[in-house]
C-alpha cells in the first residue's frame, strides 16, 4: 500500500504541473487513467470499471479547488479554506467510488476531507533551498507538497478500501 501511495503522490504532482505536459487536460489524464486502472486492479470489478472511474475522477478534477488551496493566505480565514478543501476532497473521492456501486465504501468519500489536511500540511513543510519557483524540481512551492500528500492520500485510501 505504501508503494501505491507513493505512485499516487507522484502522479498527482504531475497533474499539478511537475513534468509539464503542455495541457491541463493531459496532465489530468495522467492522474485519472492510472487511478481507474488501480481501482479495477484492486477491486476485482469488470474491466469497464477502469474507464468509468477514470471518467469520474476526471469529473472530480473539474471541481475548482484554487479558492482554498492557499489555506487562508489570501482571505485570512484558514478555517474557511480548510472547510472548502475538505468539501472538494469529499466530492472528488466520492466520485471516484461511485462506479463501484458499493455502499460499504461510503467512508472513502468521507476520507476525502483529508484534502484539507494535506494542503494545510503542505504550507508547513519548507520548500528546499533553491527550489522555489523552479518548475524543473518536484517541489517548487508549498502547494507542490500538498499535491504530493493529497495524491498519496487518495491512492492510500483507495488501496485500503479495495484490498
Explained architecture:
By secondary structure, this protein is an all-alpha fold. It has one domain (2-162). It has seven helices and no strands. The chain has helices at residues 2-15, 24-43, 49-61, 78-97, 106-111, 114-122, 142-162. It is globular. The termini are close together. The mean pLDDT is 91.
| Shape category | globular
Structural class: mainly alpha
What integer is the average pLDDT? Answer: 91
End-to-end CA span: 9 Å
**Beta-strand percentage range:** under 5%
Number of strands: 0
Rounded to the nearest angstrom, the radius of gyration is: 15 Å
Order of helices and strands: HHHHHHH
Secondary structure elements and pairings:
Layout: H1 2-15, H2 24-43, H3 49-61, H4 78-97, H5 106-111, H6 114-122, H7 142-162
Helix pairs in contact: 1-2, 1-7, 2-3, 2-7, 3-4, 4-6, 6-7
Describe the structure concisely for a colleague.
By secondary structure, the chain is an all-alpha fold. 63% of the residues lie in helices and 0% in strands.
Features:
mainly alpha, 63% helix, globular, 163 residues
